[in-house]
Amino acid sequence: MLEGLVSPESLSFSYADMSVPEMLKWLQQHQQQEVLSLSSNDSPELLQILQFHGSNNDELLQSTFSHFQMVGSGFGTNYNMGFGHSHEAMDGCISRTSSCQIHPPDTMGVMLKNSEENRAISLKNKRKSEDKTREEEKTEKKIKVEAERESNISNKEASSDTSKETSKGASQIQKLDYIHVRARRGQATDRHSLAERARREKISKKMKYLQDLVPGCNTVTGKAGVLDEIINYVQSLQRQVEFLSMKLAVTNPELELAVEDLSVKQAYFTNFPVVIASKPSVMVDVPLFPLDQQGSLNLSVSNPNQTSIDAPSESWETQSQSLFASILR
Amino acid sequence: MHMQPTSSMKEEFLQKWQMGLQIYRPLIDNTSVSERRKAIKLSADVAMASLRRGTTCWSRALIQKTATEDNFLVRQMLSGIKAETLINKKLPKVMCHRKIVRRSKKILRRRKSRSAIEEVAAKARKLVKKKTQGLRNVVPGGEFMSNDVLLIQETLDYIVSLQTQVNVMRSIVDAAEAGSERTAYYLGKLKFAIEDG
């Protein structure tokens, strides 16, 4: 799919001049405010990119603990209310990606501390995920010891350093989270491809949700076909809206939907001969002159305060609520 | 895993939609069918978008779009907070950048070597890109979603909201039609009764 204009990796390139252990130490020292000021200086486009939508993935965290895998960090939701308000965007949480894979023991494990440092640190992080990050770091150490790695020694040192530092940091209530991506055997282990793979997996996961949502998508294979179906479905829904609004405009000339709701549904579900006086368009077709003069037939249920139909209207009021609700289901 | 239109969503949509239609009722110029249809559709769209309370990209874009058609309605339907976000229009800067990026990529691509496998893969990728662009055209505000993950998330949410909208509107139309049919039926019956008797 199209690559985003500003990918998350590009944010890390500003620190390319620093070596890895330096960078990590810098990170330990500098707190949230540093990152916040950095990000707020950037263009509003970056803020758009940083506008993550996530879901609370607590159950995902549970499963990862049970399997002692690379752990994803907690999710938060960040809602960007205005485009010019840079600090408001940072007030929300960020979502961090997690890609957890179960692999047989012969695969390589690569610890990748991704460009998490470059993202805004959540201020509204839940306590749950805080506790879990501490546990995460414990499991991190275990995985580091067990995993085989072909990455550089400097990386190893750096990651072991950070593990110590982060364990200290966790005790100091720091909120650093990592994206852990496990590389399969024979696949490139540099940051770019790993991040790209994580992104691709995210996309395919979301496409699966879409496939469940859109009817008739299960038969089609391949991204292009699924996208085609989605486009058709959305277009058909939009056309339906147009059609229904046209239908309503024809059958209900005075837009008295609020009033008509109750009365129409009452008429529909009860067997009373109800003439809804508020719909002259229907009456145009039928010659009504004798009927109009007969007041008894002109039962307008639209006005619940009418005295001519006292007893039934009371019950209808209560009935209408339930009918109303039942129609919505 | 993702949700279906819930009854609470439908109720909220109906309430907001009716509120929007109430705004139209005192206006006398709703005489032609097309005017009424437009009023119905616009208030339905704003109601659907306001369900998300400005949290999704498509809802903001949809509100902006309807604001260009009927500013008054949108301002009345939403609380005062939203009125300001309407003024903050998304800058088309992002779109321009993508064009430049695309053009430069094209130039670079001409130098690449072509093998048979690569060509097929490249064609598949092109097709997918075309489809994603098509999806962007359909989803409101899609032109501003350069991130594919965001696009798919937005599409998911948009589809669910559209389903809600369609469900409620269809049930209203059915009820309205049933009501009108019933009245026509009874009127016909009475007419016959009068003619016979």
From TrEMBL, chain B:
Pfam families: IBH1_N
Stretches assigned to the IBH1-like N-terminal domain: 7-68
Subcellular location: Nucleus
Keywords, comma-separated and alphabetical: Nucleus, Transcription, Transcription regulation
Domain of life: Eukaryota
Name of the protein: IBH1-like N-terminal domain-containing protein
Organism (species): Brassica napus (Rape)
